[in-house]
Amino acid sequence: MAAALGEELPDNEDYYGLLNVRREASQEELKASYRRLCMLYHPDKHRDPELKSQAERLFNLVHQAYEVLSDPQTRAIYDIYGRRGLEMEGWEVVERRRTPAEIREEFERLQREREERRLQQRTNPKGTISVGIDATDLFDRYDEEYEDVQGSSFPQIEINKMHISQSIEAPLTSTDTAILSGNLSTQNGNGGGSINLALRRVTSAKGWGELEFGAGDLQGPLFGLKIFRNLTQRCFITTNCALQFSSRGIRPGLTTVLARNLDKNTMGYLQWRWGIQSAMNTSVVRDTKTSHFTVALQLGIPHSFMMVSYQHKFQDEDQTRIKGSLKAGFFGTIVEYGAERKISRHSILGATVSVGVPQGVSLKIKLNRASQTYFFPVHLTDQLLPSAVFYATVGPLVIYFAMHRLIIKPYLRAQKERELEKQRESTASDILQKKQEAEAAVRLMQESVRRIIEAEEARMGLIVVNAWYGKFVNDNSRKNEKVKVIDVTVPLQCLVKDSKLILTEASKAGLPGFYDPCVGEEKSLKVLYQFRGVLHQVMSADNEALRIPKQSHRIDADG
């Protein structure tokens, strides 16, 4: 489709930005912008061979963008799926008078066909590694009894348990999936493992079923059945029944969970578990953009308890969260508090301090790396010692901030620079082409801009004195970074009509006469303009809509 013309737009080109129209622009607005750019770039207006060649290329690019957006079908495809939708095989057989909804359905059908061809190549690996550490010798030492024993001056820190589990999913068909999982555990020198195979089938849009088979050296064979079903749009049920075979006989188990949406952000759960550890549990979970709250009550054998937890989500780029919980029951009372933070694109690091009676004090460190979880519970003391609570709280904070400053931050900065450099290298030819097109467009605009300025001066209208686009460095902490901007005075003046300049919510790199001077970095547009003889100035973010003139842009003469 889009490749029908001799010249083809780059993959990252914005058709709307090239024509400087809103995404909701009517056919009349598209046509008016297209005609204006055609008059600007028409090859017949230029006699110089070089300018004529450049004008012909730009004219074809504008024409190609207009061809896509002026056709309701291709515009609907582009609006929903962008350039990749236009390049999808199979659109030739689609009827031309389909609605956007019908086009979406057709695209999803074509996409499903492509996904099914790649089905066998996909897996979803998940894993957990847990290492339990006994560090009670740091705080619970028998100094008087063992002070003369050789080597006793150094605390003994031991690994007393480990657990490793891994699972992979193998899609068999569009509705059937096989899940293979296994685990190994050891504690105080004793250990074992098991392996499980589950077959899951999606029976309908409302539910699925799963058969599970397992075997291990500590326990005998396991047969299980799990069923999920949406009862209504706001309510679902999950039932899991299992038969565990062992030397003591057959141990049946049944777990049923009924869940309901209480409102947009709140879920209520009722759970009944029958078997070795029978219990009834009810809980309410409220999850919003800034917080996560849970309250739960369980009555069962051997444990009954009540639990309240709260988590606050900070709206920062590191996705910082702080949390606290209180759990009290027949086993005692536990208070937990902690925090977690994103330390890289795929990694989240968290630490939780657990203080309880009779459990003592523990520090739990967790690292999530993509679909892998690494968990390190460190048991510090069996008693409630203030020193243990202090070091468990302050120690991880000091270590984290030291590592963040000395290791993580420099690593992420270097990684970002490598990615930017790689992105610059991969797009170097496209950016060079865009730069040449922008420079050619500016040369072609000169005569039109001269006429626009004469008309605006005659009416004391809008005159762009200077305009720059790119990366500005105003923060003192970034003073070593290089400013990367280009002069866009002429292209902006060319867009002035009736003493007004209107830019839509799109990257300004796609505007005629613009290009991206700093790929992958934040960009802004800074404009110094004159309106009715008074200087104005404004700075706009790259994807921010801009409308000038405005009274708020006026430069105070007294300042």
UniProtKB/TrEMBL annotation:
- Alphabetized UniProt keyword annotations: Acetylation, Chaperone, Coiled coil, Membrane, Mitochondrion, Mitochondrion outer membrane, Phosphoprotein
UniProt membrane topology term: Peripheral membrane protein
Subcellular localization, per the record? Mitochondrion outer membrane
Where does the record place the J domain? Answer: 14-82
* Superkingdom classification of source: Eukaryota
**Chief localization class?**
mitochondrion
What CDD domains has UniProt attached to this entry? DnaJ (cd06257)
Check the record and name the SUPFAM superfamilies matching this protein.
Answer: Chaperone J-domain
This protein's GO cellular component annotations are:
MICOS complex; nuclear speck; SAM complex
- Give the UniProt family note: Belongs to the DNAJC11 family.
Tell me, in a sentence or two, what this protein's role is. Required for mitochondrial inner membrane organization. Seems to function through its association with the MICOS complex and the mitochondrial outer membrane sorting assembly machinery (SAM) complex.
**Would you tell me the protein name for this molecule?**
DnaJ homolog subfamily C member 11
